[in-house]
Amino acid sequence: GGVITIDPGFKNTGSCTSKITFLDGEKGILRHRGYAIEELTKKASFLEVAFLIIFGELPTKSEFKKFEDDIKSHSLINEEMKNIIDGFPKVAHPMGMLSSLTSALTAFNSNTVDINSKEEMYQAIVKILAKFPVLASWAHRRNDGLPLNYADNSLDYISNLMQLLFRIPTEEYKINPIAVKALDELLILHEDHEQNCSTSTVRIVGSSEAGLFASISAGVSALWGRLHGGANQAVLEMLEQIRKDGGDVEKFINKAKDKNDPFRLMGFGHRVYKNFDPRARIIKNAADELFQDLNLNDPILEIAKHLEEVALKDPYFAERKLYPNVDFYSGIIYRALGVPVEMFTVMFAIGRLPGWIAQWKEMRENKEPIGRPRQLYIGETLRPFKSFEER
Ligand code: CMC
């Protein structure tokens, strides 16, 4: 074969061409299908942006209505899926449950998709968009001992997500528009981020022609790790630890700088953004607004701001171009909305779902070849076999 270049972590390797998301890490620019993230978060809804990301254009009113209705029509989950949930111990992490349940969907729905059939492609897309938030809410409700909940088709996508997570059957459920708006904006910020770890996973699994649900399930697993989506849970645990420790942010910053200590400032740094993460800026403002609107006070928010301020003044972080990323403030918003910390990465997954779908669709429509990187073998050369007696 030809010359093989080794690029650990694919830091300088492009895996595809794409028309979905433009990202400039130096300038801190993020656009979907040519629309600026700052504008999308202010002017569109989560599901509208999902349509844009997946199909390439903003929907007309009637296209949007059909899309929303089609999703609603698929929101039921096969009752047998509950047997799977019942099999999990109460301490199961919701990300593990979500990945398993998403994979289990393949037992009740066709997993293969004929990419030459627009209709089959569309059906798979609306099905996963409909069922994924229900399964995510089940992972949470199972651990909280709440009865499993179903979609309320009178509600929009994000309001429905709120009731899926939080509705208690014996109480009247009131949607809080401030909370819905904050969650909508936060999840828009997570919708796509080009070829990150989980998205590359979805594309590579899908490239073997494994179906959409199987590919998404793999994406959930990839997102789980603390260097990726799992960072949002890790950030809040870190901030809690700082608070319990008396709020000494310098101590934790010094720990993060110490090369003999594996500790890193969670929610800081990014593979691509080397100036600022535009999503972090929007989230920080959103957190401030939400706390004002709901008249909330959280010492954790003050600790986060103080930590950011001190870290940004420190040459260690400046030299390495380490700034707060999307995960730094998101957990503070989830917490204000009543989302338990072990559900934070699940929320990220719900937000990222449209991106995974769009990237999978693009990969299949481009008829990309199966993903199969090469390697440089550096192990033993040919050796004669030794019997047990000779070893
Ligand atoms: N705290 C302390 N030092 C850091 C941090 C941090 N959070 N991040 C990077 N560094 C240092 C790192 O030790 C290295 O230093 P040196 O050059 O002296 O060896 C230098 O900065 C470059 O780091 P890297 O690990 O080579 O950079 P990377 O592009 O491979 O990693 C990252 C990017 C996001 C994995 C990393 O910055 C990190 O671990 N951050 C903390 C976890 C986190 O917040 N992840 C969420 C990422 S954004 C959303 C998402 O993907 O889900």
From TrEMBL:
Q: Which GO terms describe its cellular component?
A: cytoplasm
> Would I find Transferase among this entry's keywords?
yes
Instruction: Alphabetically list the UniProt keywords.
Output: Transferase, Tricarboxylic acid cycle
Q: What's a BP term from Gene Ontology annotated to this protein?
A: tricarboxylic acid cycle
Q: Which pathway, metabolic or otherwise, does it act in?
A: Carbohydrate metabolism; tricarboxylic acid cycle; isocitrate from oxaloacetate: step 1/2
Q: Name one Pfam family in it.
A: Citrate_synt
UniProt keyword annotation of Cell cycle present: no
List the active site: 270, 327
Q: Which reaction does it catalyse?
A: oxaloacetate + acetyl-CoA + H2O = citrate + CoA + H(+)
**GO molecular function, one example?**
citrate synthase activity
Superkingdom classification of source: Bacteria
Q: What does the similarity note say?
A: Belongs to the citrate synthase family.
Fetch the NCBIfam families from UniProt.
Answer: cit_synth_I, PRK05614.1
The name this protein carries in UniProt is Citrate synthase
Q: What organism does the UniProt record list as the source?
A: Lutibacter profundi
